[in-house]
């Protein structure tokens, strides 16, 4: 029996370069100490938090929604369109 057949039987290919992908994956994970963590923390706190970035992305949207809803309510209850209520459409225009 040849040595290559023994390695194939185990399910692993022989690595002729000596490079181990499992060691690379283990080494490239999140470091235990990130020296830039403190310098990057300001990007996600205070006025730059996710909620504040969303809220400040549409300035005046809340006021516009309230004003539009108020106008629609006023138009519905107080403005009556009598022009379309008449039976003879052509009689008023003489």
Overall 3D form: elongated
Radius of gyration: 36 Å
Number of strands: 0
Helical content class: 40-55%
Regions with little confidence, pLDDT below 50 for 5+ residues: none
First CA to last CA: what distance?
Answer: 112 Å
GO biological process, one term: electron transport chain
Pfam family, one: NDUF_B12
Subcellular location: Mitochondrion inner membrane
Protein name: NADH-ubiquinone oxidoreductase B12 subunit family-domain-containing protein
What labels describe this entry?
94 residues, elongated, mainly alpha, single chain
Brief description of this entry?
By secondary structure, the chain is mostly helical. The protein has helices at residues 3-10, 21-27, 37-40, 50-55, 61-78.
Structure description:
This is NADH-ubiquinone oxidoreductase B12 subunit family-domain-containing protein. Pfam families: NDUF_B12. Keywords: Electron transport, Membrane, Mitochondrion, Mitochondrion inner membrane, Respiratory chain, Transmembrane, Transmembrane helix, Transport. With 94 residues, the protein is mainly alpha-helical. It has a domain at 40-82. It contains five helices and no strands. The protein has helices spanning 3-10, 21-27, 37-40, 50-55, 61-78. The chain starts with a helix and ends in a 16-residue tail after the last helix. The model has no long low-confidence stretch (mean pLDDT 78).
